Amino acid sequence: MLLPAKAEVARQLRRYRAWERVMLASPGDRTVRATFEDSGYTLCVLMGKRCAREAAEAAERYLRSSVGSYLQEQNGRPRTTAVVHRGPPVTVAVDRRSPAGR
User: Fold this and answer.
1) How confident is the model at residue 66 (pLDDT cuts 50, 70, 90)?
2) What dihedral angle (degrees, nearest 10) is formed by the CA atoms of 57, 11, 8, 43?
3) Taking Cα atoms as reference points, which of 34, 36, 37, 40 lies closest to residue 19?
């Protein structure tokens, strides 16, 4: 998975938060709303999320963490080591006769 540069994520997150404040101050202004939605869309594309709120939260987590721990968190499972099996492979006896031949 490719991740954006942290500097670019920080810049876009600041832009999104600034337009969020302006939009909350004047929710009826269509130009402000459009610019706010554009900044949210950009953040969604950068972070690979469908919702601007999720993208902002993901950006904040990404900026707080290392790349490895962020990827591990995104996968939703802890990092484990490979399981090594020692010894011969286990075989299972299978009765191959048909039921009619018994």
Assistant:
1) confident
2) 40
3) 36
